[in-house]
Each structure stands twice: as structure tokens, then as C-alpha cells.
Amino acid sequence: MTSTTMMIRSSTRLANVARRGGSMTFARSLSCQAAGGADAVNKLRSVIEEYRSVHYTQEIPTRFKKDLVKAAVASSKSTSSNVKLEGMQNLLANIGAKDRVSNNDLQTIFAENANEVGEMSPNQFMKLL
Hints:
The protein is 50% helix and 18% strand. The protein is α+β, with helices and mostly antiparallel strands. It has a three-stranded antiparallel beta sheet, with no helix packed on it. Strands 4-5 form a two-stranded antiparallel ribbon. A hairpin with a 4-residue loop joins strand 1 (4-9) and strand 2 (14-20). Helix 2 (61-75) packs across helix 3 (85-94). The longest helix is centred in the middle third of the chain and has 21 residues, at 35-55. It is globular, with a radius of gyration of 17 Å. The termini are far apart.
């Protein structure tokens, strides 16, 4: 029996469905579905990694990511424990990378990965990085 692959498009994600011997396997992309979104995520990752390699050389990457999440949550003017677009913009300004990741890039990332109210959970944000 041959393997068939179908692309299923949902409003926010792509799911690959592979049928093999009667069983279904689902895989979804956590980051972004469009090329522009993937470019925006890669740009954000490279800026964050560059900052980590200079300023957090003695820390493990997960500690650095947790510190980023805390800073992004604290810099948004909200009582929510989720990461908001405003908090991410403030974080990038604080680390001197505001001009390297545009607001359009951040809006694309949040449009494709945030929940209905425009926020990302800390765990989802850490996985994105």
C-alpha cells in the first residue's frame, strides 16, 4: 500500500496527514505557516541568540529564555502572566534590537501564534524561541 500525503489547512496551522497502513499521523508546525512568518520568527531567534551569546554566556539557554519571558511579561502594562506584543516590543527596545526586528515582524509572529486576545503563554513563547 502506498503512502498518501494530504495538506489540511486550518485557519492558523498546517497539518500534515500521512496515512500508513490504516493509521493516521498528525504533525503541526509550532511556529508559522507562511514564509513571511517563518522569516520573522527566524529573525527574532537570531537577534535573541546573538544577545544571549554576548550577555548570557555563563547561563544555560533555558535560564535565558525564562528571563526573557519574565522581562516581556513585566514590561507589558497588564496583569496577565502571558506575553503580549507590547511586552515584546519593550523587551527588544531594552536590549537594543528594536531596529533589527520590525513591528510588522512581531505582529506577524503574534498573529500566527497568539491566542484570541493576542497573547502567548510563556511555554509557547519559549518554544517559539
